[in-house]
Design brief:
There is one protein chain. The protein is mainly alpha-helical. The protein contains four helices and no strands. Helix 1 crosses helix 2. The chain is elongated and about 55 Å long. The protein starts with 10 loop residues before the first helix and ends with a helix. The mean pLDDT is 82.
């Protein structure tokens, strides 16, 4: 269980943390570590829980952690040759076609 009180977090922040933790667990991260990372991500995005005496609606956060995927995703693809990417695309197209035909038969 992560340290600290979670009562100051909004329902949306708790749902967000649950979703992030679940994603980590699907990738094989232990439950306690997944939960720790999830709350760290929520804190990074939203600046922690609700502040005492503040209004019900917070300022826009920009979701910095959610934007990191794009900066990482291009590297693997950029290191592959055009022929490799093209072959992968052909294979995917064939799979999509095969799956569509299978779905029509059901």
């Amino acid at each position: 269980m992560p340290r600290g009180y979670k009562s100051k977090y909004t329902d949306k922040q708790e749902r967000k943390a649950d979703h992030i933790a679940g994603s980590y667990e699907e990738r094989g991260v232990p439950e306690t570590e997944a939960e720790r990372r999830a709350w760290a991500t929520v804190n990074k995005d939203d600046g922690g829980g609700k502040k005492p005496g503040g209004p019900g609606r917070g300022a826009h956060t920009g979701h910095p952690a959610a934007r990191r995927g794009g900066e990482r995703g291009g590297r693997a693809s950029a290191s592959r040759s055009a022929a490799d990417r093209s072959a992968s695309a052909r294979k995917a197209a064939a799979t999509h076609k095969r799956n569509a035909e299978h779905a029509r038969q059901d």
